[in-house]
Amino acid sequence: MLRKEAAEIIRFENMGLLFENGPQVFNKLNLSVKEGSFYFLTGPSGAGKSTLLKMIYLNQNQTAGKIELFGRDSLSILHQDIPYIRRKIGVVFQDFRLVSHLSSVDNVALPLKVRGIDPRKARNQAAELLKWVGLEDVLNRNPQTLSGGQQQRIAIARAVIGRPKVLLADEPTGNVDDEIALKLLYLFEEMNKTGTTVIVATHNRALPKEFNHPEIYLNEGKATLIPVGGKKKAE
Ligand SMILES: Nc1ncnc2c1ncn2[C@@H]1O[C@H](COP(=O)(O)OP(=O)(O)OP(=O)(O)O)[C@@H](O)[C@H]1O
Ligand SMILES: [Mg+2]
Hints:
Elements lengths: L7 E11 L5 E11 L3 E5 L6 H8 L7 E6 L2 E2 L8 H5 L2 E4 L11 H11 L4 H14 L15 H13 L5 E5 L7 H16 L3 E5 L5 H4 L4 E5 L2 E5 L9
Parallel strand pairs: 3-8, 3-9, 6-7, 7-8
Antiparallel strand pairs: 1-2, 1-4, 4-5, 9-10
Helix pairs in contact: 3-4, 3-5
The structure holds adenosine-5'-triphosphate and magnesium ion.
C-alpha cells in the first residue's frame, strides 16, 4: 500500500542564535520534524533545549538562518498572526507560566475559552482532565499556593486540552514522582497516536530509553538525530 509521506511541520535551516552579550547558543543548526512524530529533546544543561522550544513557539527569533513552521518562514509571520499559530501549539514551559489570578481549573480551561467554547463546558472538561492527573482536590485553588509538581500538572493539562497539532513540553516530568511521570508520558503518547507532533525536552537520560522515540541531541550549537536504540557519538 502506498503511504503518504508525512509533511514537514518544523524546519531549521543553518539556524544560528547569538545573544547580545551572551553565548552563541546555536550555530548552523539543521533539523526537520515531520508531522505526527515524537522526539525527546536532550543535551546538557545550557545546550539550548528551552531556547529551541521557545523558537518553535515564536518566542525567540534566530539571528541567522531560517525557521519554518507549518510551512511558513517564521520571520514572515505577522505579529498579529502569532496568536493564531500559537493556538495550534500546546506548550509546557520549564517555569510553567500559569496565570496567577486564575484558579487551577480556569487556567486549564483557558485555551478552550479563547476558542469560543462555552465557559461551562470548558470548565467541565478542564475539571475532568485535572481529575485524571490527580488534582481533583485543588480545582479551585490558585496555582501560586500549590507545589511545583502540582503546578506542572496544571501546565500540562492546559497544554493538551485543546488537542494541539504540536505539543512542546519542557522538562514535564521534572517535579513529579515516577508514577505520575509515566502517566504523563503515556498521555503524550496517546496524543501522538491521534496525530499530535510531540517534542519533550528532558535531562532524564533514562526516559528516551524507556519509550521508543528518537532523540534530538543538542550540543555545541548543533542538533544530532539519534534513532531509537542509537548512541551518541561521545558514548
Ligand atoms: N534571553 C537570554 N539572553 C541571554 N542568554 C540566554 C537567554 N536565554 C537563554 N540564554 C542562554 O542560552 C543558553 C541555553 O539556555 P537554555 O535555557 O535554552 O538551556 P537548556 O538546555 O534548556 O538548559 P537546562 O537543561 O538547564 O534547562 C544558556 O547559556 C543560557 O544562559
Ligand atoms: Mg531548559
